[in-house]
Structures are given as structure tokens and as C-alpha cells.
Amino acid sequence: MDLRQFLICLSLCTAFALSKPTEKKDRVHHEPQLSDKVHNDAQSFDYDHDAFLGAEEAKTFDQLTPEESKERLGKIVSKIDGDKDGFVTVDELKDWIKFAQKRWIYEDVERQWKGHDLNEDGLVSWEEYKNATYGYVLDDPDPDDGFNYKQMMVRDERRFKMADKDGDLIATKEEFTAFLHPEEYDYMKDIVVQETMEDIDKNADGFIDLEEYIGDMYSHDGNADEPEWVKTEREQFVEFRDKNRDGKMDKEETKDWILPSDYDHAEAEARHLVYESDQNKDGKLTKEEIVDKYDLFVGSQATDFGEALVRHDEF
């Protein structure tokens, strides 16, 4: 059993073992917050460090000298400058922040890539993925766990074909990332909606009605009284989810529900960093401007010690 199969089985077992009637299932894909710290530059730049580097990577800078922090920051700036014109724009900075925040996704892809690129040619074909993921279960028409792996394989093949932009059934690493994490890619959002609707639409009429919507997130399990949050979800369905008031959600209404247009925190932070660091006010940053303002972007022993002094004084 490979990692994907193990995780699938584990998630299913966990769901059955741990789910309770009053627990709410959340299918909405929100953009995560850039940091759990308060954004108050008058107190510290911790929020900016987390946003720019990701929380775990930001911690590694706190033990560096200012000179070491500046050196590492300079190397990062070279990566951010995608077109190599010597400037970092708001868009380039926004893309970097999004990458830093979702580094775990790329690490997950790297782990899975090694197990599926069987011939080590730098590509993953559908045949490679199918054999690595489903090879042994396809030989067993009646698996012990009773799970329908063939149905899952058909669903995976459809998603693989959607991710595979040139239609050759061979995925580059970017296409493989879109396959594993479709919610992160605009061109994959239709398949996210389709899979969600198939999960919830029990009568297979192509829509999600109120009872299917509630049934996906709550099981009565013999209880006559619904929790307050279930009653609230019923109201949400009627007032907001079912926009045309026909008693059910179609594809577009489902998309608005599970893939909402969130506030773009990464763009807001990118604009903030450029505004604070742009010495000549030309709307873009040089490496020198960023390194000169290094303590806004990254931590060091000096900034960590300085913040400790501020906390001590406040105490």
C-alpha cells in the first residue's frame, strides 16, 4: 500500500471512528491567514516575517547575526525577481508570499513524486501513477476493506486528465501538483466543484438540495433536536447558498460556496512591504532597498533581542 492509499484509508477510518453527530464538516476552501500574530509594526515585525518566509522558516532567522540574515535575504531576493530585471515588483512579491505560505504543498509533492516517477525521467505518466497507487488492489476484485478502489481510480484518472494541460497523459511536476492539490489552481476549480457535488448529491440529479447539504455535514443519529449550528446552516442555505431560490444548489452556486473569493492577504502584505521599503518611490524594490530594510522582512539575533527588550520594558 503506497502513501496515498494509506492516507486515504487512514482518513476514512479516522472519520468513522472519531466523527460525532454534532461535528461540522467544512468543505469551504479558504485562503489561510499569513500569520497568527498581530500585525502591528509599531510593536514588532513578527507578522511580516511570518508572511514573507512562512512561520517555520521565519524562526530559523532569529538565531542568525544581522550580517547572516542580510546574506540569506539577498539570496531570497534573487529568487523572487522572476524576470531577472533587478527589481522586485508587487506581483513578484505576492507570488513569493503565496509560495512561502504553501511550501508544505510543494514538500508534499516532492515526497509523492519520488514514489510515482518510477522510471525517473522527471515526469509522471498516468500509467506510472495508476500502477504505483492501485496496482495491487486492481488484482483483487473484492478487497478486504470493501472499499471501491476502481471507482476511486476512475475519479483520479479524470482529475489527472484535467491537470494534464497538453493531454499527453504525462504530468510535469507542476501538473502533478495541480492533480494532488486542485484547489490551488484556477483551471482545476471545476473538478473540485464536480467532485464535491458528486460526494454530496446522493440522488444524482446534478444538484445539492437542502437535506443533502445538511446531511453531508451532520448526522441525526437518532437525535430529534438539531444543534444550533445546524439550524444556522439551514438558514445559510436558504438565504445565501441557494441564490436563485429554487431549493437547490447548481454548479455555480456550489462553486461560490466552496471556493469563495477571499480577501487577498498576500497582495495586501506585498503592497505593505513595498510601501515601507521603496526609498525612491518608484513602485518597485531593488535588492539594496530590501536588504537595507532587512528587519522588516526577516528576523535576526538583533531583532529578536530588541523585541525581548520591548517586552521586558512593557512588563
UniProtKB/TrEMBL annotation:
PROSITE patterns linked to this entry: EF_HAND_1 (PS00018), EF_HAND_2 (PS50222)
Superkingdom as given in the UniProt entry: Eukaryota
Signal peptide: 1-19
Family matches, as InterPro entries: EF-hand-dom_pair, EF_Hand_1_Ca_BS, EF_hand_dom
Keyword tags: Calcium, Endoplasmic reticulum, Glycoprotein, Golgi apparatus, Membrane, Metal-binding, Repeat, Sarcoplasmic reticulum, Secreted, Signal
Coarse class of the protein's main subcellular location: endoplasmic reticulum
The keyword Lipid biosynthesis is annotated on this UniProt entry: no
Family: Belongs to the CREC family.
PANTHER family reported in the protein's UniProt record: CALUMENIN (PTHR10827:SF76), RETICULOCALBIN (PTHR10827)
Any single GO CC term annotated in Swiss-Prot or TrEMBL for this entry: sarcoplasmic reticulum lumen
Record GO terms (molecular function): calcium ion binding
SUPFAM superfamilies: EF-hand (SSF47473)
Top-level taxonomy: Eukaryota, Metazoa, Chordata, Craniata, Vertebrata
Localization: Endoplasmic reticulum membrane; Golgi apparatus; Melanosome; Sarcoplasmic reticulum lumen
Full protein name: Calumenin
Residue ranges annotated for the EF-hand domain, each copy included: 68-103, 104-139, 151-186, 188-223, 265-300
Flavoprotein among keywords: no
